[in-house]
TrEMBL record:
Keywords: ATP-binding, Nucleotide-binding, Transport. This is ABC transporter ATP-binding protein. InterPro entries: AAA+_ATPase, ABC_transporter-like_ATP-bd, ABC_transporter-like_CS, ABC_transpr_LolD-like, MacB-like_ATP-bd, P-loop_NTPase. One of its GO terms (molecular function) is ATP binding. It comes from Streptomyces mauvecolor.
Length: 245
């Protein structure tokens, strides 16, 4: 491995991050979090714990009231709105519970939408979209429109759209929340496969069973990280290391 591989900055660095809303409501209270390249982790907590706010902060969809946020080596506070949008487009992929696919266009064109601001010509965007759909096991569904796909297939299209640009970070917000158990299992297997291929993935969830299957679980409660558990060999291995904050 080259020396450069060791010197690349973490994908996510949060230091002392606080988020307050009008009325003195504190959604985050001094959060410290580092996500290294190639990690697969769950950010888990009940409704109202602050995990959705943390998703918005990490995804640069919102800015903290205090503290520092660095994404792929870029200090978010130092960026203009335009450069922040570019950072988001180039470095972060999003997957949401509700899929957010464009109705009336094919799976291939939905995935190509993920490269809309890349500057690539349309033919190249569609070629890369086809490759991404093959990657998630939907090579035979490229021409299908969202209403012709099952829930699990829609989520696979959404994942393909999120990873087509090879982002530094994939943020998956309750990716199995709208799926039956079989489809949800298939989506989680895909997430594990993408991670094995090198993708850095954070799954935001309230589901402790899903979180327990991932090699790292960052537990949020009342706006704070209360536990950061690492299970390097998987949740079915007897040994694990646990850090409690």
């Amino acid at each position: 491995m080259s020396t450069a591989a060791f010197t690349r900055p973490p994908v996510v660095e949060l230091t002392g991050v606080t988020k307050e809303y009008p009325g003195g409501v504190a959604a985050l209270r001094g959060v410290d979090l580092t996500v290294e390249r190639g990690e697969l982790l769950a950010i888990v907590g009940p409704s109202g714990s602050g995990k959705s706010t943390l998703l918005h902060i990490i995804g640069t969809l919102d800015l903290p009231t205090a503290g520092s946020v660095t994404i792929a080596g870029h200090d978010v506070a130092a960026l203009t709105d335009r450069r922040l949008s570019a950072l988001r487009a180039q470095h972060i992929g999003f997957v949401f519970q509700a899929f957010h696919l464009v109705p009336g266009i094919s799976a291939q064109d939905n995935v190509a939408e993920g490269l809309l601001y890349s500057g690539l010509p349309r033919a190249e965007r569609r070629r890369r979209a086809a490759t991404a759909l093959e990657r998630v096991g939907l090579g035979d569904r490229m021409k299908h429109r969202p209403h012709e796909l099952s829930g699990g297939q829609k989520q696979r299209v959404a994942i393909a759209r999120a990873v087509v640009g090879e982002p530094d970070l994939l943020l998956a917000d309750e990716p199995t929340g709208a799926l039956d158990s079989v489809s949800g299992e298939a989506v989680m297997e895909l997430i594990h496969e993408l991670n094995k291929e090198g993708a850095t993935i954070a799954v935001i969830t309230h589901d402790t069973e899903i979180a327990a299957r991932l090699p790292r679980q960052v537990r949020i409660r009342d706006g704070r990280v209360v536990r950061d558990i690492r299970t390097p060999l998987g949740d079915d291995h007897p040994s694990c290391s646990e850090g409690v904050r």
